[in-house]
Structure formats: C-alpha cells, structure tokens
Write a structure and sequence with these properties.
The complex is a heterodimer of chains A (371) and B (102). With 371 residues, chain A is mostly beta strands. Chain A contains no helices and 30 strands. Chain A is globular and about 50 Å long. By secondary structure, chain B is an alpha+beta fold. Chain B is 22% helix and 19% strand. Chain B has a five-stranded mixed sheet with strand order 2-1-5-3-4, covered by helices on one side. The radius of gyration of chain B is 13 Å and the shape is globular. Classes of the chains: A mainly beta (371), B alpha+beta (102).
C-alpha cells in the first residue's frame, strides 16, 4: 500500500512523520540532530530512500547529512562550500558593499533523475551542486557573478537563495530565487542566468519595477506545465505563463497578499495554495485565524480553507519552505508553523488535522509519496 | 597523548563518548591539535574552524589549564600540562543561548 513520509526541519532538529495512504494515523520519528537548526530536508525523486538534510548552528556552522534508508540513519557528508574565484560584493542593509560570505544552506534540491546529484541554495546567495552524493560541492558561479550581483541586497532573513526548481521537461533549465534580488532562470544547466522579474512591482525599492531587487519569497510550478510559475512575493502573489518572461498579479480577493509559501496541487495545475500573513511587520495571519487560501482558477479567485484549523488567537507564521503536497489521490497538503504544528489535509485542503502540535518552530516541510 | 574535550553536539557528531585522545606530531599547538583532531574525525571539519582560512569560528573558545587561550596565535605552544596530557584542551561552545531566537 502506498504511503507518505513527511520530512520536517525545525529550529531544534529534524522529524520524520510517516503514514499509509489514508494519511490518518501517523508515526513520529525524531528528533534527529536535536538542538541543531534543520533548514531543509528533501528526498531524491529518483531514489526515495536517499535524503539530504541541511544542519547548522551559529556555533558550529554548516553540515550536510545524507540518509540512504529514508531517514532512519544518517551520515555527515561534505560541508565545504567555497565560492569559485573572487567572491565579489553585494549590498548590505546599510547600503555599503560587502563581500559574499558563505553562511548556511537554506535549500537542498535533489536531481529529478540522479540520486547522487543535488543542488544547494545558500546564503550569501549562490547555487552549488554536488554530483557525488553530497561529498563535495562546487558552485555554479554564473549566478553570483551576474552583472547585477553587486546590487543585490539581503532580505530581513539574510541574502538567501531559497528556491531551486528543475524543469522536468527541459533538463538544461533551472529556476532560482533570491531574497531580495528576485527570480532567475538558466537555460544552460546553470552556467549562465538571467533575471526574470519583468512585471514584479515592489514599493520597498527605489525603482519599483527594477530588473532586480525584488524580495521573492517562493516559486512553485506544476510538472506538467513548467512554463507556468506561481510566486509568493514579499507582497503580491504573481503568475507567469512564459517561464518568467513576464509576471502578472493574481492576488485577487486574498485578505492580504503578503506571505511566504506557495504550492500547486499535484493533479490540478490551476489549483494553488498560499497562507496569507498580515504584513511584513506582523508575521501572523490576519484576524487571528489560520487560513490556507486555495485558488482553483490559477489565481485571482481564492477561497479560505478553515475546517480543522484554529480560527481564533492564532499568531504564528508559516515559512517559505514549510508547505508541500503529496501525489496521492486525493492530493495531500502539508504545512508547518512557527508554533511547532504540522497540519495535514488528505482531501486537497478541504479539511485539516494536526499531525503534531508541539515541535520546535518549523522551518521546512517536504513530503514524499512512497510506492 | 593530547586530551581534547568536545562540546556535546560535536561529541555526538564525532560519535565519541568522553574525551578524545590524539597523537600530535611535533609541538602541541592549537593548530597541530586541530589538525590531528580533524584527521581522526573528518566530520568535525568546518565545525570548530573554517575549512579554508582555519580561522576559529566566532562562538568557539579554547580553554586550557583554566585559561582562555582562544585568542592566542594558532601556532603558539599550548601549556605543558596540555602537551603532556595531564590536562585536557577544552573546546567550548560560547554561552550565547539567546542568539538567533534560540
């Protein structure tokens, strides 16, 4: 019988939540790496038992862990992230120029086809790749060496490369997103990159329509239509139908269009999910109600999903990597909160139940659909 | 034989219980001890000092014979009591419990 495995990264360790295809009863395994910040854990689409995890603390720096048995056991692998050539500079919060300096890995994106190949999105913003199962890492320097990089500046969380998407129909095409530089696309397997921010409008930067400088929080696509991307920007929910050639706003009737995660239904490419957050200075849902919003029309028209979610006194956040969908039918949706809850819906968002309520603050949620 | 006491997180990472005992070639200095430590426990590379510059991580301290030797030059000899194994070199995660909203 098929099942799911939910990989949860928290501020104090990693947890592995498993269930059968009904997704009603759950086993909770963890914490793994108790006390460490687990920014992201993700499994290989080519080998579901191969997992990669980003482990760090302010004391001991960055580690990468690898599992070959679905998270039962782990081994530390390579953690040497060195920028290629001259690091160059970027803008700091105060407008001065500072050299790029590696701080941590925000996101790990295993290859769609090779379990030993995995991409890492890091702070200060750059993309690395390993082709030996995480043992060694090499930067794809074309992104950090883009002519606009000296003008990139950090978002409030640091200058992180937090989103990496592989085009399932074109192995040479990659998408990446950086807070607060914007979205980028490579059509040559990561060698060169171009900003894809036309149509984004950000009032927090001197030129609201600038080619770079936009605080993109998250991008998602449906594998059947890789030219259609959905974006949760700092403010604004956006969509492109031409792989980033131009974006248009689809915030529609959302109560607020600030937020972090965005994801797409596994079987309905026009069904998307966001978690509206009150504002950039108030990182909690509006009206004290935890509501996921779903659009079944590819944006513009949104409906609140509340069944099973607390509708009073909710003042927590859902971070950019903390939402995921499984590929069962009906599609399962999962998200984790800064309050330590992980909620699951086994009916595409119509109703929700907490899998766990009292974990450390959740940084990331990824789900694997198991055969 | 040099004795090194690691903080809890690094003991778990290196899968060691108590003290680590190391054979150090030549003079016992911070650098030579860390070289030997990382040679024996490669998973510790990058956790105490930067892998390229070898600069001590900001929140790591080295204590020896009730002295903080963190700011001593890496190639300065450690106290005789550490070099002889009478006293351990303590690798400490600095007290910074409130940092980063922990």
């Amino acid at each position: 019988m098929s099942g799911v495995r939910v990989l949860v990264g928290t501020k104090k360790g990693a947890f592995v939540l498993t269930s059968d295809g009904k997704r009603q009863g759950w086993e909770v395994d963890g914490p793994h790496f108790g006390g460490w910040e687990m920014y992201h854990i993700k499994g290989s689409p080519a080998d579901p038992n191969r997992l990669y995890a980003s482990q760090s603390t302010g004391w001991f720096g960055q580690l990468i862990q690898r599992s070959n048995d679905g998270g039962k056991t782990w081994e530390p692998v390579g953690n040497k992230f060195v920028y290629e050539g001259e690091p160059g500079t970027h803008k700091y919060y105060d407008g001065t120029s500072r050299p790029f300096e590696f701080k941590r890995v925000w996101h790990l994106e295993p290859s769609l086809t090779d379990p030993d190949t995995v991409y890492a999105g890091v702070e200060d913003a750059a993309i690395f790749r390993s082709t030996d199962g995480g043992s060694s890492w090499h930067e794809l320097p074309g992104l950090r060496q883009h002519q606009t990089a000296p003008d990139w500046a950090p978002g409030a969380g640091g200058m992180c490369l937090h989103t990496i998407i592989q085009d399932p129909k074109n192995p040479r095409r990659l998408f990446a997103a950086i807070s607060a530089a914007g979205a980028f696309r490579s059509d040559d397997a990561g060698e060169t990159w171009q900003p894809i921010n036309r149509g984004l409008h950000s009032q927090g930067i001197p030129d609201p329509d600038a080619p770079v400088g936009h605080c993109v929080h998250r991008i998602a696509l449906h594998p059947s239509r890789p030219n259609v991307l959905f974006m949760q920007k700092h403010w604004d929910v956006m969509r492109t139908d031409d792989a980033g050639g131009s974006w248009r706003e689809i915030s529609g009737n959302l109560p607020t269009d600030f937020g972090f995660p965005i994801d797409v239904h596994a079987h309905e490419p026009e069904t998307i999910y966001v978690v509206p957050i009150k504002s950039d200075s108030e990182h909690y849902p509006p009206d004290g109600k935890l509501r996921v919003y779903r659009s079944r029309s590819g944006g513009d028209e949104w409906e609140p999903l509340t069944k099973g979610l607390p509708q009073r006194d909710v003042y927590l956040n859902v971070l950019r990597d903390a939402m995921s969908v499984d590929s069962l039918d009906p599609c399962g949706i999962y998200f984790g909160t800064s309050g330590g809850q992980v909620y699951a819906s086994a009916d595409a968002g119509d109703s929700w139940t907490p899998i766990v309520r009292d974990l450390p603050a959740v940084l990331s949620v990824e789900v694997q659909t198991l055969p | 034989m040099i004795r090194v006491v690691l903080p809890t997180h690094l003991r778990r990472l290196a899968q060691v219980g108590g003290e680590v005992q190391l054979e150090v070639q030549g003079q016992a200095t911070q650098q030579s001890v860390l070289d030997a430590l990382e040679e024996s426990y490669p998973m510790l590379r990058g956790t105490i000092r930067d892998q390229v510059s070898h600069q001590r991580r900001a929140f790591i301290r080295f204590f020896a014979c009730e002295q903080d030797v963190s700011l001593e030059p890496p190639d300065q000899p450690l106290p005789d009591a550490v070099a002889s194994g009478a006293e351990p070199l303590l690798v400490i995660g600095a007290m910074a419990g409130g940092m980063m909203g922990s």
